[in-house]
Structures are given as structure tokens and as C-alpha cells.
Amino acid sequence: MSSNWEYAPAPESRDIANLKPAYRMFVDGKFVEGSGEPLKTVNPATEEVLAEVGTASAADVDNAVKAARRAYDRIWGRMPGAERAKYIFRIARLIQERARELAVLESLDNGKPIRESRDVDVPTAAAHFFYHAGWADKLGYAGFGPDPRPLGVAGQVIPWNFPLLMAAWKIAPALACGNTVVLKPAETTPLTALVLAEICQQADLPPGVVNILPGAGDVGSELVNHAGVDKVAFTGSTEVGKLIQRSLAGSGKKMTMELGGKAANIVFDDAPLDQAVEGIVNGIFFNQGHVCCAGSRLLVQESIADELLDKLRYRVSTLRVGDSLDKNTDVGAINSRAQLEKIQELAAAGDAEGAQRWTSPVPVPEKGFFFAPTVFSDVQQSMRIAREEIFGPVLSVLTFRTPDEAVAKANNTPYGLSAGIWTEKGSRILWAAQRMRAGVVWANTFNRFDPTAPFGGYQESGFGREGGRAGLEAYLDV
Amino acid sequence: MSDRISVAKTYKLYIGGAFPRSESGRSYPVNDSRGGFLANASQGSRKDARDAVAAARKAFPGWSGATAYNRGQVLYRVAELLEGRREQFVAEVAASEGTKRGESIVDAAIDRWVWYAGWTDKVASVFGASNPVAGPYFSFSVPEPTGVVAVLAPQASSLLGLVSVVAPVIATGNTCVVVASQDRPLPAITLSEVLATSDVPGGVVNVLTGRTAEIAPWLAAHADVNALDLTGAPEAIKADLERAAAGTVKRLVRSGRGEPDWAREPDVSRLRAVLETKTVWHPMGV
Questions:
Q1: Does the keyword Oxidoreductase apply (chain B) (predicted)?
Q2: How far apart are CA A471 and CA A456, in angstroms?
Q3: CA distance B261 to chain A (A)
């Protein structure tokens, strides 16, 4: 029998996204014209313009912060937790009800596969609101004293890799703790955050409690440096995180930084190999590798390296790259041309420094921003592809001989966001987990996220946690 | 004015997701606070109690094994349905308790349900711990539901009190057999109807109506009941019930003499009361 079993296209309809030609910023409960230069947001899988989006000027930032302050002083900051909870539950439910629309819109704007936005991003965003709604009237039990108080107005800047989910991670705990919010979505992915604004309206959330200001880095800078902002939460690159931390020096503002990573995914010789291969693939190719906690450095015990790499290359070659709205797509589009160029540049550095490049033979669309899954072997710790965050579907493979060497190599990074451990031996998992200088350690799994489980980094991967009991601290005056 | 004759409701037991009459065939009249006839309620028997315990036990693996997130969603959905039946509850509470504060009582009951719905996925992080033991071990303690809880519901507060004792039991993953307020059982049966049309699996909550003093001893002595909430127990038999409960070392939930003030903000004592702590040890080392 021939092996001509082709996938038939299974596209999700883009009509479901309910895409509008123009989107406006959301301030004080209303959608208003921004006085910044409008931006055009693009579908990275086709390079077509999706919509024009109004952006904020410095004056708009000021208005939004003032609206947030009024809402905090007059309503939200004084409202009993049980009442705040009900608003946040409503938001959770509305996200669930509009899940399909949000998923398609997210895939259009971001380029990620519809299966992922449908099964991960949107449901996890709803879960985040649901979980934090429950905290709003239980903060006295969170371990920060009997009656912890909110901080005030939170200025939040989020990245383009999980646009809606990151908005949820930021807004849900802030509101639950009694703060009001001014949030800037990423320049290339503003759409789902603006639908979330619509959801806030539908939930009858009091005006000014949530404000959404699209724009580029300059808007983010205005926002975090605004004197009326009490709390700054940033998710993005370590480079920008350092800039923000520096510019806020002496301001007394409380900060949370969720920055870059270069996670080690350690595979010991007794690991269940097929399971490990799935985890490695998920660790680096999930969301095109646009994941701050991606398992981008694979550390394999030398004795099993050849066998594992053979299995890995075979498995990676089966990943389908292409149309983000096709339910058969495993790896979608790179979010922007700039990001694609950065990935290409770092991959070229891998070649130049002597690593062995293997690229999946998968067909890649001619239009749009795509990068075929790539695995570098013979990688040395000194190479750029072992040190720098690529933020793309590129895996660097290094080897080790002893567990101590694995730990030393894993920790040989200024980052410290996540790590993976693969072994059948429980005691070794716990031994290695204890030694990882990283905020999240996955054992025999990877890239698991849950609102109940705190997430965040050590060292230059940032500080503060999101999710769980620990995550509440970021939005409380404690 | 319409002269239509209304359709009167038959109030029955709630066992394993179904609404049977008492196997004993007995019923008893339920009156309003001024002595006027409201309805006949089923008068549950020893066998009804045993059926209810069997149903609760059968439902326990599924309910306790559901994720905390799922339980939270299911319980929050119950609050949504309670809100939809608000007027019916207000009328029944007003009739049963002879109060003019029916609306605020029902509001408080719905909010109480939401409060407990929000606890499902927080119990483990508030009551659990990792234990820094002095050795190469990873040790952690997790709270787990104790099992089947027999709940003698408050006699006076027919809805708010009832919600306050039932919600914490199921939020933590337990299943229960509830003996409703003897003289004010109607809100409990209506609550069962809400539960039956919600996503709470049959058997997670079972509701018996009848004489508390008749049913309670069988539950207190039942070997497949793990905990006993004595809140609505008649003072005269409380000590006897505790003695019977000792036969299988049941956990006891005791409130002082008289009924607590249910309108007060709750604390976590009712959650803790129905939780076990499980400590797990695992060696650490290459």
C-alpha cells in the first residue's frame, strides 16, 4: 500500500473572528479615538493587514491613568471583595462564551495554530479570571496578613506571544486584589485585548477599572513612568525589563518582571525516550518557540544522545508548518518580520560557530513569516545559540556525562525561568529540581500552566510570580 | 382576577440524583410560621438514610477525583441557578421562617455559595504544605476530603444555614447526606431541584426530610459515614450521637448551643473540619 495519506485542509472559518476594519483604545469604560499614530496589525501567516488600530499618545496615557485612579478611589478600591469577585466571575464566563471568536482572532493576529489558541490560550485565560475571582473575598487567607490592601493603579505592559492569556495573567490578579489597571498590549497583537475590553463592558465593569491602550514601546514607557502609576508589571524581553527597572529607580513603584529565558531540558539516560521526545517537541516548538520558558537548550546524557536525536528528528519532521487557522497545523507563523529576522540571524550564528544544523524537510508557505523547525547539535556552551534567547522554533542540543555536569550546565545562564527533567527515577527528579536555579521545574512534562501554580523567574528572568497564592503578592501592599 | 387553581408541588426526598418518596410511605405536614398548611413532606426512614449513604459513597470517587477547577465551575454554576430561582426561594424562606428579610437571606445564601465555590482550587495552597524535613526527602502534605459526611442541617435557618453547612462539604470534594430542617424543609427540597438540574453529579448531595431525631442515630452509627455535622441535632441527643459516631471514629463538626449567626461572614473552620491531611515522603538523590 502506498503511503499517500495526505491531510485534507481543515480550516477554521475566519468569519468567526468577527474582525472589524478598525479598533479603538478603551479608556474609562468607552472606546475612544487615540491621538497617537494608528497602527496596522498584520496576519503574520499571510502578511495581509487585518485592521487599523488607534494608539495612545502621552496625553491619552495620562487620561487613562487618571480614569483608573478615579475608579480606584471612588469605586473599585472600596468595593467589598465579594462584589469584586462577581464582576471577575462574569468576565470569566464571558470569555468562555466568546471562546471561539477569541481563539480565531488570536490566531489571525498572532499566527499561532488555532488548535493552540482554542485549547490553551483562551481556556487558560478564562481559568485565570475564574481562579482569581475566588480570591477577591479571601485575601485574608492568602498568607499576607488579615486584611491586605491593594496598591492602586497598575500599569501593565504585555508581549505578543500570548496576547489574551498575558492580559488575563495581568488583569485578573490586579482586579481581584482591588487595583485598577491600564494595560498596553503588544504593538503587533492588540486585537484580543480590545475584545477583552468589550467583555469588560458586557460585564458592566465600572468605567476606568480596566483601560487598554494599544501602541508601541513609547506608550509603554509613558505608562510605566507615569507618576500616577503605583505598580508596574512587565512581561517581555530581559533587555526591556532592565530598561524599565532602571528608569523606575527611586520611584518607589512596586514591580513585577517576567522576562526572558534559556531553559535547560535535561534528559537522563534512564528517561522514557518516546515520552521525552514528545516533551522536548512540546517544549521548543509549542507556539513556534515564542515562549519565554521554552526548553530551548536540550541537555542529553551522552550515552543516549544518538538514539534520542534520531527519534527527535523523525518526530520533528512530522510537524506541519503553515496556515494558523488550519486545525492540522502544528507550528504556525512567526509573529513578525522583525522576529523572523532575529531568528535567522541567531541561526546563522549557530552555523558560523560550528554547530550542526538540521532543518525539518517540511514544506513551508511562501507567503507569510515562517521558519521550519530546526535542531542544532554539537552545540557548545559558549555559542550564542546556547546563551541567547532565540524565541523561535530552534533547539540547541548539548550533551553531558554525569548528573552534576548536567546541573552545572543547566545553571550556566544568567536566566532562570524554567527547566525540564526527564528520568524514570523519582529521587533523581527531586534531586535535580532542588538544584535548578529556575522558577518553574517540569519533570517528565513541559510547558504546563495553571492559574493555581505560581510562574516566574530567578535571576535575569525577572522577579515576582504570577498565579497561585504567591502571585497575589504582586498586587498587594504587603 | 383569574380563578385558576394552582398546581401544588409534591415535596420528596433527593437520593442519588432522583426524587423518590420515602420507602416507608410516610409523610408529614409542613406548616408555615403561623401554623398554616404548606405541604406534605416525605418522612425519611432508616432505610432511606442507608440508601442515601450508599448513593453518597458511590458518588465519592468521581466527585473527589474531579479537578478542583472543575468542582469550582460546577459549584459556581449552582449559584447561577440559585439566582434564577431567587423569587421562589424568597417566598419559601419567608413562609418557612416567618421573616420579612427573605430577600437579604436569599442574597446572602447565593453569595455564600459563591464564596465556597471559589475555595475549591485554593484549599490545597492554603492548607497544604511542603515540609522541610531533616533528611534527603521531599515531603509534602495535601488536604483531601474525608469522604461521606452526614449533615444535620440547622433547624432554624432553612436556606442560608443549609447552604452554609452543605457548600463547604462538597467544595472540598466530600459527598454528603443532609437531614433538612425538620419543620422548615421546603427550601432544602427546592435546593435539591437546583442541584439536580446543575452539573453536580447525582449522589454528591442527598437530602432527607423527616424527624431529625429518628434519622440521625442511624447516620451517626453508619459504618460508611466518615464525618458527622451535629449543627442541627436536638440538644437532648447530641451526646448519644457522638457516642454512636465513636464506633467508626467519625470526625465531628460541633457548633455550640443554639444556632450560629449565619449572616456573619464565614471562616474556614467548616472547610477544615471535613479535610484529612495526607503527607507524602519521597527520597531525593541521584
A1: yes
A2: 9
A3: 19
